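#help-structures
NK: newbie question, is this the right format to request a structure? protein is Exodeoxyribonuclease 7 large subunit
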Amino acid sequence: MTHSTDTALSVSEVNRRARLLLEQGIGEVWVEGELSGVSRPASGHVYFTLKDSSAQLRCALFRNRARFVAAPMRDGDRVRVRGRVSLFEPRGDYQLIAEAVQPAGEGELLLALERLKQRLAAEGVFANSRPLPCPPRHLLVLTSPSGAAIRDVLAVLAARWPLARVTLIAVPVQGREAAPALIAALGLLNRQQALDPARDVILITRGGGSLEDLWAFNDEHLARAIFHSRLPVMSAVGHEVDITLSDLAADVRAPTPSAAAEMLVPDRRDLTRRLVGLERQLSRCAQARLEREGQRLDHLRARLRHPGEVLTRQRQTLGELEARLQRAMHARLMAERRQLGHLQRRMASCHPGREVERAANRLTKARTRLEQAMQRDMARQRERLAGLARQLQAVSPLAVLGRGYAILQDDSGKVMRRAADTQPGQALTARLGEGRLRVEVKRRLK
């Protein structure tokens, strides 16, 4: 289809439509290939090309994602890249916006991890969501004593809540022995809970690293141990984008060790500011209350009178009320006497016998009028009924049948109006003026 020059698209519009089609049509994908032309400009972004034996694809890994790529990216390395296909509109370059880059060998490992994650989710291992006390009375931290995670946690706790009681349980957080050690420590802490009921939160944490460094926290048995822990567990493993099975099984997940410490305790500076504000508010409320009560006291003091004066005024009021009561009673008694005389005169003039006689006369006249009205109405209704009967007889099909006509119907009751509607050999019912006949069609005549 051709377009006129009036409807021609701009280059920017074409590129924008192409970008939308690529992003919506393909979406996010995993691409495997060989690195080529890796460049790292001062902006911190990484630009490279993925190629195989017959094609290549330009890629861009922006700075906010590049810092989470643990392994160095070198020309010739075979990698798997997760990203979304897009188009750089200013130059019209088709490219892959990378979200994650990993060595190609990690693909099967991640696939197995995803299957394990789905199985544990179906079993309900990731259903924990118990609330954590804030602040905890006694925090138990499971991590390496020489790692950066414990230093970050302690630094944040010291700055936000110096009163925090922390116990470090030293465990390896990397390698084959890490998961068994973490499981054993969790079991020991749960068994010792009865000895120290103040222990109320467990924090499992370590700093960031590669997928292999964090693999111990994807152990199935460790996830189950966290799920079955009687003490609530917070997990803060790796960077913000790293999510392990331990994070999913824990009651609360924090993106980093420092964020975990911030979530566990309030900020003393915020509480101090809040207390200062509440103190000022309390002072203002107390001052306002004192002023209101002082005004009320002045008002009551002005209203206060000597008891003798109050009694004298009440005696005067009582005398006045007594006099008013006497006058009201006398006036009421006189009014009732006048009303009684009036009613007696009315009763004498309205003897019951005369009322009964007048009512009997009215009843006799009403009965006579009713009988006459009923007779007239019945005569009118008889005449109307006779007229309707004549009209009905005039339009009744039975009257037509009485003049020698017949109505033919098939077995379903349908009326035959045309000979073409019948078939030879068809059985029909003929309705006459008196009675019915069963007939059979021999042939149709034109």
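mod (FA): yep, format's fine, and the tokens are attached above. Residues 352-395 form the longest helix (44 residues).
NK: thank you!
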